[in-house]
Every structure is written in C-alpha cells, then in structure tokens.
Amino acid sequence: MRLLHTSDWHLGRSFHGVSLLDEQAAAIERIAALAREHAVDAVLIAGDLYDRAIPPAEAVALFNDALARLSAGGTAVIAIAGNHDSHVRVSVYDPLLSAFQVTIRGDVGRAHEPVLVTPRAGGAAVAIYPLPYLEPAVVGPALAGEPVRLRHQDVTRLAIARIRADLLERPGHRSVLVAHTFVAGGETSESERELTIGNVDRVSVDSFAGFDYVALGHLHGSQQLDGPRVAYSGTPLAYSFSEQHHTKSVRIVELAEDGTPSVQVVPLGVGRPLCTLRGPIDELCGDPRHTAATGARVRAILTDDTLPLQAMARLRARFPHIAELRHEPPEVSRSSGVERHRQVRQASSPLELATAFFTDQQGRAATTAEAGLLEAALAAAERGGER
Question: Is the same domain home to 56 and 77?
C-alpha cells in the first residue's frame, strides 16, 4: 500500500496581505503530479484544508479542482477537518463523494468508521480512520457520555478507543490514522493558531500506539515523532518567516505486508522563497550580495540609529516582494530604573535632566549636534519665561 501524506493547505491564506492562491494552486498541481508519479493508492490530507471556517469562493473552487485532480484514475482521497475548518461545511458532501472514493470527514461521531482501501497491486485492504480535529468543549460531552470538562489528551484517547474497538473486529487489517492535533514534542512555528493557552493542548505520542502509520496535521514543519510511524507532513508553502528554513514537502509512505512503514520525504519546490536581511538601509539597498533576494519575500531588519525616511519605498525598489520592515537600532546599555532615578535626583541643571531623558528614551547618548540643539532649546525656553 502506497500513501501520499500532506496537510495544512490553508487555502485562501494571504502572506502579509498578498494572496497565495496562485502558489497554492501550483503546490496542488505538484502534489497531484507526485501522486501519479508514485502511483499512490490514497492521498491523505490531515486537516486545515482552508485558512478559515468560511473560505473565499476562489479557495473553495481550488479545493474542488484539487479533489478532481487527486482522485483521477481511481486514487482514494481521505481528508479531515482541522481547527481552521468548519467541520460541517467541509464535510457536507461526504456521503455523496464517498461513491467516488473521496472522503472528507468532519463528524467525530463517524471517526470509528474506516475507509477501506485496497492496494492497486493487490493484497488485503488497509483500514484508514479519518479523525477530525477534536475541540474538547464541543466533542467532550458526546465522547464521555456526560457533561464533563476534558483536555485534548482526554478526548483523543476516548475517540481512539472507539477506533481501536472497531479495529479489533478487523483482524489482519493494516491500520492508518489521519488526525489533526498537537503531539507533545513537536516543533512549532509562528503561523500556527494556538489550540489553547498553556500546554493543555498537547497529546502524548503513546496515544497513537497500535497504528501502522499516523498521518498528522497542525504543525507546519515536516517532522516525525516516533520514527517514521507518527509524523507531520508540514505545509506545502511557508506561511510565516519562522518557516523560511523549512523544506516544504510531502511524505510518500509505503506500508509493507506486516504494516511496517517506510517513508520518502519529497520536496515540493514551489512558492516564492522567504529571506530575512539585517543591516543599515544603504547596505541592504546597495550590496550586490543581496541580489539573490530580489525574487524572494523579504523581511528587512534595519539597524540604522534612526528609521530612515521613505525606508519601505527604498527597500521595495530593490526588493519588489518585500513583506515586512522592522527597525532594530544597535543595542546600547540603558540605565536601570534605579540608576535613572538616581541620575534625575542628582541632575544639577535642566540640561542634565533633558540629556538623561534623551539617553533613556533613545537608548544612546546624544550626539554633539543633538546636545547643542537641546541646550539651545532650553536657553530659548528660559528667555521666553523671562518675558
């Protein structure tokens, strides 16, 4: 049995106000090509199909096109709702689509109902269980049978217990779980929406014991947590500068007859690259070493003492796809609050007081010219008071 594991498409997402729909379409085209090239038996999409519960029409059209491309030739497609998706909206046509080997599961009440996929090369069917994102406050009472407060760990164990009960009635079946959750030990990035405050959203790896392969979604970096058996595929595109060093990919999973998985991580190589540049504006705009960044989405961190005038316009002339500008002047030791108050108390003149305030606010001492301006301003104020 050969599977293609992908997740977290976030269709309809933008990057600092710029639509990513064209790049997402290119990523889907690449994924469909890989599915054909590797003759996969099933494509697993582990949640966050869209970026928000009510996606734009263009994103819905792209997803519909993706389903048609991926299922062409009889490939099974199994997708689940993630925490960004509306469970009802994404799975409304699941009963109809199942006739075409397409499953989009949003109802946790059906998580114990597997999709049975028979390999193209023959052999026993594999039981694939689509487990959508579990919001404890929503699904906890139904899973527990009483109105109790549960954690992500609790609702996951309850849902998987039902799945294991079904699997016991299928002796000899290899098993795959598709889930959208935060597994303890996973590496995060800035673009993931937190599921809860603190660490109560973490689910332990041992919750997934007994499955031959666990296709995870939610974390945006490709990573594995229990050898190749429990893994995140990561997003097909980078959705924040914290992901600029990720290699965006899909996982091609080969399940042996005994269920042992072997995995090939295949880079997608689509989408505009990300780049962070740091330095004074004259260097960033003039240094030929930064030529390669002209085609990238750039985050510029300016280290000039003061923010230059028209900084963004100047940077955009060099880097047409600049997305973010930060100003981080050189760090200068600032006096502590106690030391600052001591200096204020001991200030012998208004000029010393003004100079101490300038140093505290700017993080540096006044230049000779700035000190002259302060002195002139104070002198003018004193003359005005005398009148």
Answer: yes
